[in-house]
Amino acid sequence: MNNSQRAGRLGVGIIGAGKVGPVLGAALAGAGHAIVGISALSPESRDRAEVMLPGAPILDVPTVVERSELVILAVPDSELADLVAGLAATGAWQPGQLVMHTAPGVGISVLTPALQAGAIPLAVHPALAFTGTSVDLIRLREAFCAVTAPAPVLPIGQALVVEMGAEPVVVAEADRAAYAEAIATATSFSTAIVSQAMRLLDDIGVDSAGAVLAPLVRSAVENALAHPTDDREIHP
């Protein structure tokens, strides 16, 4: 695959039909790339794939890899290393093929078996709490994606992020663990605190607790992001 092919329309294959893979596939399809296949095992994942990527073939993993110029590995972090190594052991990876995983905590080192087969490794994590629905396509336009890649191909990863509608931010290989910790902290803390606040309002009979809290949560988060050490607006 030459540079002119990469700059144009790619055949994109997605391994994993959880909340992330189909959304990224739909975003790339919207940018003009072709979805050549997606792997989906459970009835729920197959339904999600059919809704987000109508008409895309649902295939087994080796066939997805065989047909793709860009392979998106959107699988749980715990499964990623074994998946990459297993495909390498069967000779599935192709020279010049782009291989992109979406795990936050690891960079391109986990893709070493694919790299050794001549594939081009990319680690791209969207900093977004996915729902697995078309809502994510709108939210992706305001999101950032951590990109880790070898210097010569870093622009490819950045370009793919821009095509998905997001903003790329480069994260070094050595910093991926710290990045993942920041993402996990923000996600788990936000979810736990908002859920607790909603329960408290429900307990005292406040209707539409989510609607009541939404402006407060948004403004508090915006204030915290603008002034990380200043909490006077919510604690006078």
UniProtKB/TrEMBL annotation:
Q: Which SUPFAM superfamilies match?
A: NAD(P)-binding Rossmann-fold domains
The residue ranges of the DUF2520 domain are: 144-228
Q: Which Pfam families match?
A: DUF2520, Rossmann-like
Putative oxidoreductase/dehydrogenase Rossmann-like domain location is 4-126
Record-linked PANTHER family:
CONSERVED HYPOTHETICAL ALANINE AND LEUCINE RICH PROTEIN
**What's the protein name?**
DUF2520 domain-containing protein
Q: Which organism is it from?
A: Homoserinimonas hongtaonis
Phylogenetic classification of the source organism: Bacteria, Bacillati, Actinomycetota, Actinomycetes, Micrococcales
